[in-house]
Specification:
Helix content: 25-40%
Shape: elongated
Radius of gyration: 16 Å
Strand order of the largest sheet: 1-2
Length: 78
Amino acid sequence: RAKSYMKPAIMVLDVKNETAAIPGTGDVPVDFTHTFDVGKFAVAMLDLPAGSWPRKTYVVGEKITWNNFLKLAEEVKG
C-alpha cells in the first residue's frame, strides 16, 4: 500500500475483486503519478521566480500499458 490522502478510484482494474475493464486494446501506455509526487512538484514550482513558469507544465510518473499492469497484478496475486 502506498500512503495517500485520496481514496482509490477503481475504473479499469479492480485488483481486490479480480476484475478488469481495459479500454481499447490495452496496449497504449498510460501514466501513473503518485499524489505525493504531484504535491512535491507543485511546491518546487512555487520556488521558481515570479513570471518564469512555463505556460504548460507536465508531471509524468510511471508509464505502463493496461495489459502490462494487469499482468503485474496477476503475478503479485498469484
